[in-house]
Request: fold
Amino acid sequence: MVYLVSYDLIGPYRDPAEYTRLEDKIKSLGATLHFQKSEWLVESTLSAVQLRDQFAPLTVKGDRIMVNRVTNEWAACSLTQAEVDWLNQRNFADAGVPLLGLPRFR
Reply:
């Protein structure tokens, strides 16, 4: 299954090591794509709740983390070919949405 992990570490000054620890944890959980500044795509057999629980010990009060399951019905603009290839190689098993065969990116 593929998940979008979004996060915002709150505070006027955050030690770069805090971001590194969180990003290292994300990368340890399966195939990953660093999609945007604070967003990663992760292919994992864990549930969204299990993934969230992996990140919780790395946060402090006020930090925000969202884990959303991504289906095979995705669309995007301005992706690199490497990003498109990464998505096309992922397992969207049990996502519950049939692939429509429509253009996914432009």
In short: The chain is about 25% helix and 25% strand.
